[in-house]
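Co-fold these.
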Amino acid sequence: MELLLFNAFNGLIQGVFYALMALGLALILSLNSVINMAHGGFLVIGAYLAYTLDPYLGFWGALVAGPLLAAVIGLIVERVLIRPIYKRPDPLYSLLLTFGLALIIEDMVRTIWGPQGLPLEVPDIINSPVSTEYFFVTGYRLFVIGITAAAAIGLYLLLRYTLLGIRIRAGTKDLETTSALGVNIYKLRALNFGFGCMFAGLAGVLASGVLGLTPPMGDSLIMPSFVAIIVGGVGSLFGAVLGGLIIGLAAGITTTYYPAASEAIIYLIMLIVLVVRPRGLFGEEGLFE
Amino acid sequence: MKRLAAIAAMWLVLIALPWWLPQIGGYTALGSKVLIYAIATMGLNILLGFTGGLSFGQAAYFGLGAYGAGMTLKYLAPSTPLAILIGTLAGGLAATILGPLVMRRRGIYFAMITIAIGQLFYFIMVRWNNVTGGEDGLAGFSRQDIHLGGVVVRLTEVNFYYLVLICFSVAVAAMWVLLQSPLGHTWVAIRENRRRMEFLGVRVERYVWAAFAVAGFITALAGTLNALLFNFTSPQDLHWILSGDFVIMIVLGGMRSFWGPLLGVIIFVVAQDYLSSLTDNWMSLIGLMFVLIVLLFPRGLLGALPRGGKLA
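Predicted complex below.
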């Protein structure tokens, strides 16, 4: 029972990272119509920049600066590389472009910071276990859950109540009409891409406190995030978060009983969901098909 | 007439490859690798270029073929033809069984689901240690000489190249016949206007399924040959990075043309071979190649030619 709780909690933390990644991916997917294969790259950029700035800004400063810098780099990438291919309706090109970008980012990070793993120091105040019996429930992990919940709720409020959010949602439904109503959709899409990358960067900083930093760390997180989106349903941000938590928990629980299947279970869940509910748990009909 | 001459010249060059490639500083195994990847990408192109199904997880069937062949040689029987047969069936049948999950989806959804299915197989191979060799890959098998009646064909590097060339010819002929048949024309029609085909009463999903299955069988065949070429296979042969490589090779050569993938493979494999010997940062250069191809040559090299839009 102790072991099950331990693994389930570990899985939940993993699920939180998947959910954060999936949120950014889903944002970019719905408004920019881009499957961002480089999303893991932005995660790594956020994490490593936070690591580099940590000695100067401290953990808290780095926690803010990492995601923001990832967003700035995302804005530049969007302007230079993604914008020229919006006019091509075939998703093939954005897929290949961001795939190439992912290779470049991983290689550059390896060249600049080295292939070996690096640790991100977490302040003692939030890193001590909360109780002696459940030693694995460290303050940092609760902190990760808290920050993620805050970010997700913040995004919800933004999309629900601000003019920018309303425009983003309108653009998701019908980009042409939104443009015809006088919204600068280029600016809108650029901002949205930046938001998505910010979530990737945040996931990177938070994850490096638990898992440490390695150049391919984005790789192992991006595929489960795809699955989270498919399970939750393309087009639903809530679905993406829920999907991430479900597969994280499932992987954790499977570790207790049959560790070898802890990764495969994620993809099995996806297959089962696809058979039972082809559009995912909260997917909308006809979106992106 | 010009086309015929060009194709005849291509076959001559391929047949003479073990003679001229070493002379210009290459090696025959590189030729085998090019042909193997050409089989895989031309098979994938039936789905990608001709039917319009954006499969981004094709390496799964390539890898299943490779593991099928390797495991046959290691655990079952020391026979090269049997290894090729079982490997091809393993990958092809997997694609056939999974087809119904994929065939209803389009565009981005199709891509994401094929990627995710590929990852499922990747983790099975990584985690099923005692049978597949796990992360280190499957070794401890080697291609066996072929017995034809009383004659023994020793599979040296050059002879193996000719075996690959024979498989390439058979696969190319089969694909050519398929694409000229009513089935092939239906595939192209689905790519051009799926909805109209539905209105005409064509069961589009079944045709997409057929394309998925055919592509699976052919990529799996390529996978078996790849395992035999190196006497080794690893989970990297199922990884989505290889899937992406396949797609970029096709786009580079021209995805609307029959021979396009072959051209893309030649450029990509030779470039990768050369770049990885040149610099440690070859991954960045490959990535840069992806970006530049998408921005500058979206229709591929053969697609840029005036007649490139047509079949063949």
